[in-house]
Amino acid sequence: MSAALDAAGTTLAAEAARFASFGWMRGTSGNLSLVLGRDPLRLAVTASGLDKGSLTAADVTVVDETGAAVAGPDAGPGRKPSAEAAFHARIARVSGAGAVVHVHTVAAVVAGHRWPDGVVLRDLEMLKGIGAAPAGAAVTVPVIGNSQDMAELGDRWEAARDEGVPAVVVAGHGLYAWGADALRARHHTEIVQWLLEAAVALA
Amino acid sequence: MSAALDAAGTTLAAEAARFASFGWMRGTSGNLSLVLGRDPLRLAVTASGLDKGSLTAADVTVVDETGAAVAGPDAGPGRKPSAEAAFHARIARVSGAGAVVHVHTVAAVVAGHRWPDGVVLRDLEMLKGIGAAPAGAAVTVPVIGNSQDMAELGDRWEAARDEGVPAVVVAGHGLYAWGADALRARHHTEIVQWLLEAAVALA
Amino acid sequence: MSAALDAAGTTLAAEAARFASFGWMRGTSGNLSLVLGRDPLRLAVTASGLDKGSLTAADVTVVDETGAAVAGPDAGPGRKPSAEAAFHARIARVSGAGAVVHVHTVAAVVAGHRWPDGVVLRDLEMLKGIGAAPAGAAVTVPVIGNSQDMAELGDRWEAARDEGVPAVVVAGHGLYAWGADALRARHHTEIVQWLLEAAVALA
Amino acid sequence: MSAALDAAGTTLAAEAARFASFGWMRGTSGNLSLVLGRDPLRLAVTASGLDKGSLTAADVTVVDETGAAVAGPDAGPGRKPSAEAAFHARIARVSGAGAVVHVHTVAAVVAGHRWPDGVVLRDLEMLKGIGAAPAGAAVTVPVIGNSQDMAELGDRWEAARDEGVPAVVVAGHGLYAWGADALRARHHTEIVQWLLEAAVALA
Q1: Cβ atoms A92, A157 nearer than 8 A
Q2: Which of B59, B100, B177, D39 could join B88 via S-S bond, C-beta 3.0 to 4.6 A?
Q3: What distance in Å separates the CA atoms of residue D136 and residue D124, rounded to the nearest whole number?
Q4: Cβ count near C54 (within 10 Å)
Q5: Chain C interface residues facing chain B, Cβ-Cβ under 8 Å?
Q6: Contact A113 D22 (CB under 8 A)
Q7: Of D121, D83, D85, nearest to D199 (Cα)?
Q8: pLDDT per residue as tens digits for the range C130-149
Q9: What is the ipTM of this complex?
C-alpha cells in the first residue's frame, strides 16, 4: 500500500492547496480523504493540525471505517488523523464515494443558519454539475446540526440524506462534498459552494 | 486546419485559465470558442467536462454551425464538444463575432433574477468599453430565460438582442460575451461582468 | 529622455500589473502616469486600449501638460496616450504629484453614488496613511461628476479639492489617487480604496 | 543575536507577504513581531512605512518592552520600528505570546463598529481553532477603542481581556492576534478573521 498511500498523499496535498488558495481552509481547518481500499475500508486522510496550503505527500495517515488510525507497515508515517476522519469514512461507506472534501466556508455557515432544514435550490444551470435537473424540480442540500460525536453526525446525515446530492452542510461548521474520485469530489465541492453563494446572494 | 486548431486551442486554454482564476468557471462550468472559418462556419470550442483552469491546446474540438462535432482529419482530437456549442455558433453567425466566452458568475445570476427584462445601465464610464455612451443614454444587457434547447436559447437571444451590446445574461445560468477576437471577447466579458457587479451593488 | 522613459515604462507596467491583479483594471480600464520633467511638464502615461495586466516597458507614451502626445525622438514608441492623460497632467501640475493612478473599482462607484457631495471619513486609523488624523476631524474624499471633457473634469476637481487629500472619486467612473512617486501613489490608491470599501460596508 | 534576528526577519517577511496577499495589509498598514528573548524582553518587529508584501529579512528592528528601538550591535539594521511596537511588546509580555500579528481588515472594522462591547461568538466549529468550545458557551472577542497612545491601548486591552482569546479588535483600526510562535499566530489571525467575517455575514 506504500506507493498507493504516497500517490494519495500527493493528490490530497494538491487538492488541499487548491481549496486553501480559495480561502476555504483558513487556519488549519478542513480535511480531505481518499479511499484506498474497500475490503476492509481504508482511507487516506489529511493529518490534523497542519496548514492545508502546504501539505506534503507525507501529511496523510490511514484510517479504518471507524476513523481510527491503522497501525502497521502500511499505515503511513504515523501522523494523527483528523478527528473528523470517522465522518469521512461514514460518507465513503454509505455513499460509495472514493473521495471526500471538507471545507470551512462562510457561505456554508450562512446558508446553514438561514435554512436549517436544508438549502432548496431550483432553476439553476449549475445544478447539472451535481447530476441534478437544471430546471423544474427542486434540489435540497441537506443541513444537519453540528456535533463533536462523529457517529451522531453520521446518523444525522443518513437521516437527512438525499442520495442524489453529493454534499451536506453542517450548521455552524462548513461543507462536506464527495465524488467517485478526487477530481469529481473537487468539482462537486466547487459547484455546491457556488450554489450556496448564489442562494445567499439571491435570498 | 491543424495548425490553426492548435493555435486556437492554445489561446482558448489560456483564456479559460484566466477566467477560472477569477472563480468564474467553478467545477467544469463555462466554455469558450473561436471561429476558425466562415464558409462553412467552423468553431474551435472547449471540450466538455474538463477543468477550465488546466486545459491544454488539445482540449478543443471543432463544431459546425449547429454545434455538432465535425468529423475528419481536420476535426481535432475527437473530444466531445460542450452541449452549448450550438449557442456559441449561433452567436458567432448572427453577430459576426470571432470569439465567444461563457462564464458562470454569481453576479450574472443575481442580475438576471433581479431584472428579468434586462439589466439597464446608465452613466457608467465602463460602458465605453463595450462601445456604448458613458452618459445620457441607457444601455440594456438582455436577460433571457434559460433552456437546455440551444435553438430555443438562440431564438430568445435574437428576439431580445441589442446589436450594440456584445453580451447576454442567461437567467439562472450565467453570462455570454463576445468580440471580434479572443482579446476583445475577454475585454467585453470582464467589462460586462464588472457592470453587473456594479449594478447589483448600486441597486 | 530615452532611459528615463524606459525606466518609467518598466515602473508603470509593474504597478499596472499589481492593480490589475486586484481586479481594479478590468478590460482595458484605468491608466497610470509618472512625471518625467516639470519645465516643461512631461508625463509618461500608459497607452490606451491595452490590457493593464500585461503591459511592457514600451507601452507608454509621453504627453505634455494638455495630455497631447509629444512628437520627436524623445516621445516614446508612438502609442496613443489615454484620453484621460490630460487629467493626469492637470493633477500632476496642480498637486505637485510625481505619479498618478486611475483605477475602476466597484467600491468607488458605489461610494460616489451614495455620497455625491464627498465621502466623509472619520475615526479610522487608515486615514494616517494619507497623512490625515486618525481620530476627531473628518476627512472628505471629494466626489466629482464624470465628464468626457478633461478640462471640465479638472475644473470640477480643483473646485472640490482638499489639498490634504491625494485622491478624488469620479462618479460613475472610478478613483484617482496620487503621490510624490509611484510607490506613494500606490499606497494612497490602496489606502483610499480600503477606506471606500470600509465606508460602504459601515453605511 | 544576529542569526536569530535574521531568522526572525525571514519569518516575518514571509508571514507579512502571506497576509498582504489576502489584502489585509493595504498600503503599508499592519505589522508583525516575534519575541527574541524574555529576560530582558526583546522583540523583532517589522519596520515602519514599508510595503508588507515585499519585506526582506533586513526589514525588521529590535525593540524593548516599551517598544523603543534597542541600540548596539544586536539591534538590527537600524530601521525605525512601527509606532505600534509598544503594543506588540505589551501583548507579548502579558499573554506570554511568542508572536503577534496586526492586520487592517474591513471585517474587523465593521465588527468593531457593530459590536463596540465585544464580538460575541457561539456555536461555530471554527472556535476550536482558538482553543474554545465549538458549542454551548459564548466566546467574546474584545473590542477596544482606538488610541495613538500605546500605553492607553494596552490598558484598554488588559481591562477587556479574556485570557482564553488570543485576539482583540481595535475599533476603527483592525485586528491583533497572537500565539506561541509565528505559525500559531498566523492560524489565530486567520481563524479570528474568518469568525469576524462570519459574524458580520450572519448578523
Answers
A1: no
A2: B100
A3: 9
A4: 11
A5: 23, 26-29, 51, 104, 106, 109-110, 113, 146, 148, 170-174
A6: no
A7: D121
A8: 999 999 899 999 999 999 99
A9: 0.95
